[in-house]
């Protein structure tokens, strides 16, 4: 008798579990898909625009979206990937922390059946991300290099501030710049150092460099945050009017500094274009598309003190 009661009880529990399972499946089927936006850092206004635009576009397309900040830490990025996989996200829009170090994270998502669309930065593999939407960094810095050479009349001493050494953008920008500038032997690079794409670090690094090389004519920076930091260092040293500063990104503060004849030039990327494209690709994936180009280049525009009038002043909040 006791055994019969146990059997009936077990059958009852199975019926309840099956019913709950069916209800959960119906709820999941009716719920909007979830998109994770994982960015390298939110400590840079440019990446804030990238993240917010991606999330807003995903929501506009009818999906839930959540932003994750990796704080330039591949381990933290790995935690975000684990979280998104376990939490049932359906796609990841990724701005990688490291071109090599991020590969394993993207691979985990792929193995879990979650498409990953890279924005602005790439991973050094053509087999893990569904698609990579990238600025044409090399060509953008070729244009900056031409302007650099012309502005300095083909001679002078300069400093280069590199971004994160593990990021392909750092080297693509540097290579594009040097493909032009290295043709002119009277242009001499007296120092080259990484400042991790960070404004405060660029300030500290250039202050140190200026102690050893006080007589420089220009500073080429791998992004706009470093350009602003470099400019601060030059102001503190009383050299802001003597040394030309070049950036890359098209961030609002640098665009305004070009208007004010402080920063010499920048390469204008479009975080909005890359972010929206990534979100739209995720939407297409959800609707059945699978044949995505592995790398999609987005053009970069040269912005100088002579052409800045072609660009609208950003609206104040």
Automatic annotation (TrEMBL):
Keywords: Signal
Primary location recorded for the protein, binned into one broad class: other
Gene3D superfamilies hit by this protein: 3.40.50.2300
Domain of life the protein comes from: Bacteria
Domain Periplasmic binding protein: 35-289
Pfam families: Peripla_BP_4
Protein's cellular compartments: Cell envelope
Family from the record: Belongs to the bacterial solute-binding protein 2 family.
Name under which the protein is recorded: D-ribose ABC transporter substrate-binding protein
Organism of this sequence: Nibrella viscosa
